[in-house]
Task: inverse folding
């Protein structure tokens, strides 16, 4: 389980990067991206994914289809 | 009083400004003098026929003590269009169907029509431009005045809805809740770190459009995802 950033909607504000408890978010060539291998959807750290909480755009950070 | 109903806004404004140019004269005093010499209704045509002599002798010389130079100045104000933001505004060019492909519509919160100097919630107008890589068109100027008689519960929502057709909004400042309402309507708000001219903002935007626009901008400009993919591959090398 992991989240991903919808490239077409991300505005590269960078707000999500520092709030990630597993440091899974980095700035990619185009927009920010989430490392699916390390993303835990904040389980064990927070009740809700922190990147989704701070992201200013609706439906920009979504769960990867398993 | 029905006579006042026929007085145009423009003439009423001129009378007010002309009265201000005269010592100890308010709009009412000047209005009374004008009524006595040209009668009601006061029209543009009748004002045009006024001269210094008629003004001085009107209503038993009510204004005869006033200096000729000041009266001339008042006459000039009465006879000429008042220059306001509304009359000074730059030319609006309409946008036809299919005009300017690959363009984005932007709104600039402005008070002076030249700079992005407005706070979202208090600016007097939104200047609306259509911008492509090589062309810019001022397509509308939208006053933020709420029309008489219109009940508006949420002023900020009303303002955001004024520019609902725009994809990007530039402003000098905006509050958090207002920004959320703007985003909800699908408009991308951009708060500038300092006051910049609209011309500079447009030039910057054109550089971005001509280069590799970020995905969110490409999306709102209607560039196909397949096209965007090309950008992505180029950018990632």
Result:
């Amino acid at each position: 389980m992991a989240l991903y950033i919808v490239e077409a909607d991300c505005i590269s504000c960078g707000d999500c990067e520092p709030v990630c408890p597993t440091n899974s978010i980095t700035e990619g060539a185009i927009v920010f991206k989430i490392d699916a291998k390390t993303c835990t959807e904040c389980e064990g750290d927070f009740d809700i994914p922190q990147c989704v909480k701070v992201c200013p755009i609706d439906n920009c950070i979504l769960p990867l289809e398993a | 009083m029905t006579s006042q109903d026929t007085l145009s806004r423009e003439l009423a404004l001129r009378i007010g400004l002309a009265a201000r140019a005269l010592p100890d004269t308010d709009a009412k005093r000047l209005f009374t003098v004008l009524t006595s010499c040209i009668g009601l209704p006061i029209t543009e045509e009748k004002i045009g026929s006024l001269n210094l002599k008629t003004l001085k002798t009107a209503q038993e010389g009510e204004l005869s003590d006033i200096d000729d130079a000041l009266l001339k100045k008042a006459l000039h104000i009465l006879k000429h269009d008042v220059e306001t933001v509304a009359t000074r505004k730059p030319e609006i060019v309409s946008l036809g169907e299919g005009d300017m492909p690959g363009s984005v519509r932007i709104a600039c919160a402005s008070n002076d029509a030249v700079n992005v100097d407005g706070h979202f919630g208090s600016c007097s107008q939104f200047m609306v431009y259509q911008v492509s890589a090589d062309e810019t068109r001022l397509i509308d100027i939208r006053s933020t005045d709420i029309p008489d008689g219109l009940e508006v519960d949420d002023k900020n929502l009303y303002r955001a809805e004024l520019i609902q057709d725009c994809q990007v909004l530039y402003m000098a400042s905006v509050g958090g809740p207002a920004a959320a309402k703007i985003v909800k309507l699908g408009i991308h708000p951009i708060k500038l770190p300092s006051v910049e001219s609209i011309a500079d903002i447009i030039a910057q935007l054109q550089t971005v459009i001509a280069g590799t626009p970020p995905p969110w901008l490409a999306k709102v400009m209607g560039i196909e995802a397949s096209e965007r993919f090309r950008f992505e591959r180029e950018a990632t090398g």
User: Anything to note?
Assistant: The longest helix of chain B spans residues 198-210. The beta strands of chain B are 104-110, 115-116, 125-131, 136-143, 168-171, 188-191, 196-197. Residues 150 and 164 of chain B are 19 Å apart (CA to CA).
